[in-house]
Automatic annotation (TrEMBL):
The modification N6-(pyridoxal phosphate)lysine is found at K211. It catalyses: L,L-cystathionine + H2O = L-homocysteine + pyruvate + NH4(+). This is Cystathionine beta-lyase. The keyword Repeat does not apply. Belongs to the trans-sulfuration enzymes family.
Amino acid sequence: MSSNTNKNADGLGTETLLTHHGRAPEDQFGFVNTPVYRGSTVLFKTLADLEAQSQPYLYGRAGNPTTTSVEALITKLEGAHATRLVPSGLSSITIALLACVEAGDEILVTDSAYEPTRKFSDGILQRFGVSVRYYDPRIGGAISELIGDRTKAVFCESPGSGTFEIQDLPAIAAAAHAAGARVVVDNSWATPLYYQPLALGADIVVHAGTKMFVGHSDAFAGTISTTEECWPDVERVRGLLGFYTSGDEAFLVARGLRTLSIRMEAHCTRAVELAGWLEGQDEVLRVLHPALPSHPDHALWRRDFTGSGSLFGIILKPAPRAALAAFLDDLQLFSMGFSWGGYESLCVPFKTGSARTAVPWEEQGTLLRLHIGFEDLDDLKSDLTAAIDRYRKIRLE
Ligand SMILES: *Cc1c(COP(=O)(O)O)cnc(C)c1O
């Protein structure tokens, strides 16, 4: 891992920011947390006030003190010019991409992207005259060969959802900027605590705040943080599309963020331990976790990241569906469900098939995606050991 002083521009450590930034008890009668502001209408006292539009808040759709407090904190963590809280991770992606293109333009999207990112690109952007091409997540600087006059954005997700390739962001950003294209990075896995895309050359960073920021599987949120140059485009598109986040959701994001550092540390060490242990288990062909030395992008991960997320993949020996069902159906602690980032461990089968077009997924075997929560590690290992035994039994039948 690269040396990370964990100090931001103010000279304050990340943990201090997470604890103190983005709240002002003196404005809230001394109460520690910014309360939930609920509201659409914001009142003006005089015609002159209404005409001046200089109040901090004019209408609730553009934000309220609860959303602002979260945005201020994320801006610091990402080292960004500004941040917007939006209703979901997916909306942070759609807004970011729409902020970069118009009809006739082209975007390049990593083949490893979260599937709804692809569906939006194919289903909406293409319909409005934006071409979309997918590229090998491991392309690095060679992406310059794909970038043309019409290319306005390169979308990265590092590591990729489900397949966990690490991207060479500095090389991709250098190639994109040389051609005047912007770089958008989905940073949901590592969070700004362990990966700083803007410092590595990205222009826009998006998050599924639903995952690690909220941290308790009980709210939806997304964030978009940008450089000064991109901000007006992002803010214009968000405003025109009418995306709004309620004070209730924002409060849950703020609450999650206060403990993000200690949660990430626990997720990181537990996931690495389980991933390493799984590598030694019979039936497991490969573990896809960039912090393991066996991972093909381990060196890149060490260079650019200072920690790892809760999520990784495993590939089990090829077996009939019944073996997979036996593995999953009787799990006692790992639950099956989409999303991730909560305190509970999850395990889902991951289909890559049709979702890859640039580099076909050629790995044989059953791909599973695991999110490691806060249960006792020995209990989690026992749960997986029993599942692996059930899988083997049916595979060998
Ligand atoms: C879940 C997820 C999203 C989308 O977040 P939602 O809040 O569910 O819309 C985006 N990117 C990644 C990598 C995700 O895992």
